[in-house]
Amino acid sequence: MRWPAVVEGGGLGVAAIAYVAVDYLRNVSSTWHERLQPVLWSFLAIIVITRVPFYRHWSSELRAALPFLASMVFMLSTLLFEALSVRSVTAVLGLDWHSNTPPLPDPGQWLLLALNEKLPEAVVEILRAHIIGLHHYLMLFIMLAFSVLFDSVKAPGLGLGARYMFTMAIGRLLRAITFVSTILPSARPWCASARFRVPEYPHIWAQKYYVPYASDANAIRQIIQEDVAYADIGNYNVDYRPDWGSMTFLADFLRPTPSEGSTWYGLLKKAGGGCNDLIYSGHMLVAVLTAMAWTEAYGGFSSVFIWLLVMHSAQREIRERHHYTVDCVVAIYVGILLWKMTGFIWSAKDKNRESRLSKLDKIHSRLVQAAKDSDMDEVRDLLIDVELSSQEYQKKGPSRAMWLFAGVTIFSSLVIVLLAFTWTSDG
């Protein structure tokens, strides 16, 4: 049983467009959205279920299961580190700094405002429309991964999922390291006070090393010359320090208030999105990775559609001042480069075909000579050798690489997660 050719040729793209269009109806007509969304999901679920018994690549899916789980563990550990960093960069300077510090000048925001005056109103409304969000990109990738059931995408789907999650985890880790290195003022000055309950005043570190030298040019010049924090900070407020057991040291980074619960982990769960975790945009990273996966695995007109959605999301992030232009630009090229670097986990290229061609290239002269001599036994033996080398690569090559990847990933992330759970129970 094969999926109809018309659907194999573009059915996934049609399904993606239908999903985005039907979900957007919630902003246009809630009645039609409530009618059409269950129909669409029921149809997609039925065709997936009917295809499962005819799937031919369960063995490759099983080989990719462990790397996929390892990628998920790695992803969870990086999200934990990111959550700690998001809260820290907001808390260290206090709410007064966030509300009083003006946003950075952003020519990208100026350009969009200028275009509002030049473009037709209908075009501006399309640019302003909330067509797609973070959960849409994640769902589009899930649709892509499941399309292995219809031979629209190269199996294994779990291998594709492992690459997606591992690449995203690396991207989130690099993102957290980047934004925690230098704290930028939010493009929305009210953001911190609306989302976080942290002290109004800066942490003692900021009072000693930043506040005295933040605005006085002479003070900045002097600290550069002396390379020593010379200002007398005097008396300062003492932060509230809850009893979190072995994790109490996190109070210096998270700066909780007495009304925010009794556990550090509960504090992070309530944090949500940050305000100063700007360079680079996490939402744009997810969007770009989805577009890259779609382009490599499926291609066609639908990949152009996905990239148009990515560009629309980028200008909306800038237009609505969730991010500066630089945040979106950096996320785009970082996402592209990271995806290109992780092809060892899963690739749309046919490695077996490449292995056969490589073997044929090596025996080309022998094969030609055997044909000239009409030695059919030699020709048959050489072709069997080519086929055996391809099967050997399929059995050993990819599986060894995947197991190595799984081992390294588990080693770097599972220990972090286990320690986090241990510390949580101790606290």
List the helices and strands in order: HHHHHHHHHHHHHHHHHHH
Distance between the termini: 56 Å
Number of DSSP-assigned strands: 0
The coarse overall form would be: globular
Ranges where pLDDT stays below 50 over 5 or more residues in a row are: 1-9, 392-399, 419-427
Query: Roughly what fraction of the amino acids lie in strands?
Result: under 5%
What is the CA-based Rg, rounded? 27 Å
Our count of domains comes out at: 2
Question: Main beta sheet: strand number and arrangement?
Answer: none
Provide mean pLDDT, rounded.
Answer: 82
Q: Considering DSSP H and I runs of 4 or more, what fraction of the residues is helical? A: 55-70%
Number of helices: 19
Helix/sheet category:
mainly alpha
Protein name: Sphingomyelin synthase-like domain-containing protein
GO cellular component, one term: endoplasmic reticulum membrane
Organism: Rubroshorea leprosula
Family: Belongs to the sphingomyelin synthase family.
Q: Please, could you describe this protein's structure?
A:
- The protein is an all-alpha fold.
- The chain has 2 domains: 63-346, no CATH class; 349-427.
- 69% of the residues lie in helices and 0% in strands.
- It is built from 19 helices and no strands.
- α1 runs antiparallel to α2, α7 packs antiparallel against α8 (157-181) and α8 (157-181) crosses α16.
- It is globular and about 95 Å long.
- One of its GO terms (cellular component) is plasma membrane.
- Its main location: membrane.
- Pfam families: PAP2_C.
- Belongs to the sphingomyelin synthase family.
- It is a multi-pass membrane protein.
